[in-house]
Specification:
The complex is a heterodimer of chains A (about 170) and B (about 100). By secondary structure, chain A is mainly alpha-helical. Chain A has one domain. In chain A, about 75% of the residues lie in helices and about 0% in strands. In chain B, helix 2 packs across helix 3. Chain B starts with 7 loop residues before the first helix and ends in a 9-residue tail after the last helix. The chains are: A mainly alpha (about 170), B mainly alpha (about 100). Chains A and B meet through helix 5 and helix 6 of A and helix 2 of B.
Chain lengths: ~170, ~100
Amino acid sequence: MDLIIGLILATVISWLNFVIVDTFLGLPEAPGVKGAETVGYSIKNRKGDLAGGFFQGNILCSPDASAGTLMASIGVYILGIQGGLIAALLVYIGNRLCADPGYAGTTGALTMTLLIFIFSFIGITPEMFICGMVIAIFTIQGIHHPTSSRLIGKIAKSFGRYTKYE
Amino acid sequence: MISIIANGFQLFMNYIVAIIVAIVLALALKLPLLPEKPIRFSWTKSALFPTPVFAIGILAIFYSLNVFWIYKGLLIAIIVGLFSAIFVKYLFDYVFPNPQGGSE
């Protein structure tokens, strides 16, 4: 597949994978670790959305579906499908080491391994997914926190996962 | 492109066998099938959450190192399934102790 088209598709797939898995498993609801709470209230003070802030804090402070997506892509790039499964195990161990009580990282790594396998049939390579995931995480964490947190807040509301914190 | 070593279907069946063996033994060791609801707190051990992840992760490490042994890797799959269920039941809290403080 053409490199640019493949990159765009890989970015969209990675973005949907980690945002849907993370939101569905409750990242915007509550901070899983202390750092996420700090990040969430800091973003709220800068006119962002609190649920989106918790989401960003959670993916910043401990391995969640974003890290799972990236590690699964790298694992599949190095070792094939087996690498994605090893990545899921490593993300789970990383979750325990970070004292993060979530399921999102492991789930995200497994769903991403499945997605990479499916989309390899239309020619999207694991390299494209590695690069696409970096671009996808940049749109959430790298450009403008308050704007992206409001977008995440809207997505969280539509999933019924909005935070109850004030 | 993604390379799957040896026979892809055989490997896929081996993973399924490892998952089934792990879940069945975990249930036999009286672990609950599902984590407590709402599913937000992964410290609780159950037959469906960490057990199959350990089984397929460890099995994938063996296959990546080209260790297949006999019956095209099927025996390793069964042994890894048994090991991961026993590990989650008896050794898990020792290897990954419950963190104090932190989240709440």
